[in-house]
């Protein structure tokens, strides 16, 4: 955080009037008010239930999604990074900003040289210039060929500040591109985990439907034998219908998630071919890299982009300040003037001009001072926005850390609840077959089993999703990407 403030302060040195105040950024020693445990709880014998350890200070790989050790997920994220129109747009914005800066550098850092060739028909009446006659007959043709050179001296730093602002804009667009890449990768991982969770839930619902269908067959047979009431049959049919009704809704959500993934990879939902990911294809990272809070501002691309905007606003203050002072321009022209085009550059037709100009604003109705005050206010807005982005970054990490702790504890409890519900259902089913419990009691046990299994699946998915959210909140390791990208 201190290095971020120092980087912004450097950009303020070019301001000729009173210095601007560097943005204040928090420097906490930890993300959460309470100390963070060294590792999370575990849920033995459950896929995705292993404990996770927080590795303080460990670097994050650029392709952070590979920590889930799923080739299908790796291929899906890379496919999105290659085909996303969002990234294509952000990349084009970066190139535009870079080219505009390059154009302005060439226009301001070096002298301006222009060649001119003109032909004019001139007709002057002698009386108009107070003469009886002119030394040449009119009308006549004048041909001019010239080369003009001009250069603006940047005595008070207006051009330098302008170029610093353009460079800061390029940096902002570069970090915005990295932020877009990070968000896209995070969205793909989250959607893929959601898809895998929905597939698991659909499979569980199918298992419960099959179980209830078998139970309905038993109850119908008992009704024909006269040992079960018709009300028990209808109750079992109602429960079966309610469970079956879950499947279409889950399938709708699954289809929507796959449509979203298709858009992420830059393809139409109806034409995209995507692999079918399941929770079993993912592996929960045993260790989660955790950046120190003091380093977060240097690693999150959205914070770096906001910092660049502060530098751009500071440069704009420098431009507005320099506009209060004199502007000096020198120019020189060398050319040839003749009445016959064939005599251009002939002896006796050459001319040259050398000049200088100084412009000092004297009275503009307070406009220049107001523009500087507006630039200072814009800088203060950018500084406040930067501080807000830093605080939100710290909040993102703190929220996810607490979520990971509660996710692990929740999964442990839901895993125990699912095992208890499965054991209770097995006992109740055996007793029902032997006539020891009622149909109503069995249906209640089946309902609890279904709810427990679905809750456990959702808890597993939450651990995967929040693990990805932590890596994303820490910046995603974009700084480790090879320069060739």
Structure description:
With 485 residues, this protein is of the alpha+beta class. It folds into 2 domains: 2-108 and 157-321 and 370-480, Outer membrane efflux proteins (OEP) (Up-down Bundle), CATH 1.20.1600; 111-153 and 326-359, Outer membrane efflux proteins (OEP), CATH 2.20.200.10. The protein is 57% helix and 11% strand. It is built from 9 helices and 6 strands; from the N terminus they run αβααββααβααββαα. The chain has helices at residues 2-11, 71-83, 85-108, 158-225, 230-264, 296-299, 301-322, 367-433, 439-473; strands spanning 53-56, 112-122, 140-153, 287-290, 327-338, 350-359. It has a 4-stranded antiparallel beta sheet with strand order 2-3-5-6, with no helix packed on it. A two-stranded parallel sheet has the order 1-4. Helix 7 runs antiparallel to helix 8 (367-433). The longest helix has 68 residues, at 158-225. The radius of gyration is 37 Å and the shape is elongated. The relative contact order is 0.18.
What's the helix count? 9
Alpha-carbon distance between the two ends:
27 Å
What's the total count of β strands? Answer: 6
CATH superfamily of the largest domain: Outer membrane efflux proteins (OEP)
Q: Which structural category do the helix and sheet elements fall into?
A: alpha+beta
CATH fold descriptor of the largest domain: Outer membrane efflux proteins (OEP)
Proportion of residues in β-strands: 5-15%
CATH architecture term of the largest domain: Up-down Bundle
The domain count comes to 2
* Largest beta-sheet details: 4 strands, antiparallel
Strand arrangement in the largest pleated sheet: 2-3-5-6
> What gyration radius follows from the Cα positions, in whole Å?
37 Å
- The CATH class of the largest domain is Mainly Alpha
Mean pLDDT: 88
| Overall form | elongated
The H-and-E topology, N to C, reads as HEHHEEHHEHHEEHH
Low-confidence stretches: 2-16
Helix content range: 55-70%
